[in-house]
Predict the structure.
Amino acid sequence: MTTVEDIDPRGTRHCETSTLGVLLRHQGLDLSEPMLFGLGSGLSFVHWDSRAMGFPFLGGRVKPFELTRNLAANLGWELDVRETTSPRKAWENVAAAVDAGRPVGLQLDSYHLDHFSTKVHFGGHVVALYGYDDHQAHLVDTDQQGGAVSTGLDALARARAERGPMTARPRSFTLAVPRNAPAPRSRIVPAVTACADAFLNPPIADLGHRGIAKAGKLVRTWLDRTDDPGRDLPRAALLMEKGGTGGALFRNLYRDFLAECAESLGSARLRTGLGLYAEAAAGWTHVAELITTAGRTEEERYLAEAGDLLLGLSRLERGAMEELSRLT
């Protein structure tokens, strides 16, 4: 068995930040999960629907792996990404890192992993791999999925090779923190303003504050989008609250990031943004509750209320991001 020494297998709430935490703590850098999420400009919104989808999806963060790229670029860290269509080369990339004493991050489809009891395809899942033997790989996943877990090597290969929405060619990555890298807290303002600018100026109407407003109009029709409301609406709400988002569609994480920043930055704009995102987080949890109730009762009035609340959240988050975009 080959295992990286001195691993802190602490799972947290969101898969990508859990993995980043493992890779960074191994190098002696321990940042909170909200700080990792915020420094990676991770907050966003997407209303995703297409003919190929069985039901609409509401997402609350940037696309998979963009958070990691943002974080490395913002902090001046060395991000080594390996991608290949060869199953043999894909495993060699991983084994080489572990054999050299470094944990490695993987993007894959969680459906195939042995430790996932709920089998749902999600191609943007990220885990840290820190050891392997002839039959199993040893991983760190979120606390919800068990933290330190194991999966069969065949299952891992299938998870990495799966094709579909949000998947990548078998991708592995390592992070290195140079000695002369800037202090993380010195990069808070650029991370916040970059996140705010992207949220305020989305390229299409499905993203950012425009996407939330669009969802506010379309969520009212969700009972017409399914032949099983009692399954699809509560599942959509569950993904918002429990699907590795930290609750409130990632707004809890961003609220906590802003609160941590407010302790070290004496900024009135930052405190205003914090207050507005605390309000937004509570609103998103209420939206999820209304969607769940609509699915169970099949009463449109709950979706109408959720739609009105989403329109208000669009305005609320736009105001918060306008304040945060002016940080200096």
